[in-house]
Predict the structure.
Amino acid sequence: MSNTVLSLKNVTIYQENRVILSQVNLEVKEGEFLYIIGKTGTGKSSFMKTLYGDLPLTEGSGTVVGYDLVDLKENDIPFLRRKIGIVFQDFQLLPDRSVNQNMLFVLKATGWTDSASMQNKIDEVLEKVGLKGISNKLPHQLSGGEQQRVAIARALLNDPELILADEPTGNLDPQTSAEVLSVLKKINENGKTVIMATHDYAVIMKFPSKTLKCEDNTIFEVVQKTV
């Protein structure tokens, strides 16, 4: 039986005292791939932020990768985020550092100390996303798709239990979006749980999977053909 990676029960998500999503009930098992869709402002990003501790959970109950979101303390958040790989729309790479240095920055910040082990891990994750041999390039020397694949590789560094991808194709053209999704699906096929917020319906049609929709302060599962 698969382990539960995420469980939310009767959760209401607030942003600045305003209800964003209410009565959220969700269970995600290890190895699932889940889309979160909806128009801008319907709660996709707030949902994601709740999962990685950026928004506190104050109503309902929830656990993610073994952490209780209600009882989550400030000093727990770095440890929670080591078990979650986060991919953002705008890549968030350090512009003045090479790909390799971007990766080293994350590893050192999360407690790695052995140089050989760090380099082996960097080489491993870059190979997983099909970017072997670009480690000395600066972000501006890469295409948008390559930068996003670097961001995915970075999210894999600490072997997370869960990948959260918040609009990872939002700044990319359709062909590049499909390439990035192909990488995420391959990572999922290798056993990683992936939750992806998106408004890119073309990608969903190309790579169908379980889909939840944010609308009217609620979140509910939709059948693929009605997306």
